[in-house]
Amino acid sequence: MFKTVREIKSKENNSIKLLETQNKDYDKTILIIGVFHGEEPQGEYLINKFLETDLSDIKNKLLIVPCLNPDGKKKNQRQNSNGVDLNRNFPTKNWCKAVKKEYFGGDKPASEIETRFMIDILSEYKIDAILSIHAPFEVVNYDGPAKELAEKISQLTGYNVQADIGYPTPGSFGNYAGVERNIPTITLELPENQDNEKLWDVNKTVFQYLANEY
């Protein structure tokens, strides 16, 4: 059902893959991304659980990046192996060079191979909606024309909708894809300290909705 259509290697030679459903007839194209931040591995778990379900007859084409930051995941750190927060490294109008700390966005925009991987995907495909899975704020954050989708996901999960995460995010993927490219972009912030099986029970309907109803 899924095929690896693009694969790169990280600085530490870990695979970063783009999976694509092979349905020839489909309504919309949905992009789902896990593990922007290495210490937030829950997204990959949920994606893998979803990939185990019956996806033989779904309405939409799905593009899935199970783990964007495998180097950071192995180190259990937010940043990639260059110490860059990938969610601050996109070439947005508001990108700025931050002090090298937790939110360091790189010496220049799109300096990281992981960032360029995502930029290439958005250039190659006409994407109708994006789900990026993070933690730990337990909210449905959104960028671009995604308020209606955010409200639907809020109904499915019980997480509150929050248009503003509460602090500046220069160079973020949400700004790049949602604000500047007008793609409905959801940042699904999972709750902290909840076991993975419970997270799946709460969020599986989100995946099902994006695959079949959106």
Structure description:
29% of the residues lie in helices and 23% in strands. By secondary structure, the chain is α/β, with parallel strands linked by helices. The longest helix is centred in the C-terminal third of the chain and has 17 residues, at 196-212. The mean pLDDT is 96.
Short description:
The chain is an alpha/beta fold and 214 residues long. The chain has 6 helices and 8 strands, in the order E-E-E-H-E-H-H-E-E-H-E-H-E-H.
Which class best fits the helix and strand makeup? Answer: alpha/beta
CATH topology: Aminopeptidase
H/E element sequence: EEEHEHHEEHEHEH
CATH homology group:
Zn peptidases
Number of domains: 1
Query: What is Rg?
Result: 16 Å
- How are the strands of the largest sheet arranged? 1-2-4-3-5-8-6-7
Provide the β-strand percentage band. Answer: 15-25%
User: Which CATH top level class fits?
Assistant: Alpha Beta
Count of runs of 4 or more consecutive helical residues: 6
| Main sheet characteristics | 8 strands, mixed
Estimate the mean pLDDT confidence: 96
CATH architecture descriptor text: 3-Layer(aba) Sandwich
Structural shape: globular
Low-confidence stretches: none
- Count of β-strands: 8
Helix content: 25-40%
| Measured distance between first and last alpha carbons | 20 Å
Q: How would the blueprint of this fold be written?
A:
Layout: E1 2-9, E2 15-21, E3 29-34, H1 42-51, E4 61-65, H2 70-75, H3 113-124, E5 129-134, E6 137-143, H4 147-157, E7 160-162, H5 173-179, E8 185-191, H6 196-212
Parallel strand pairs: 3-4, 3-5, 5-8, 6-7
Antiparallel strand pairs: 1-2, 2-4, 6-8
Helix pairs in contact: 1-6
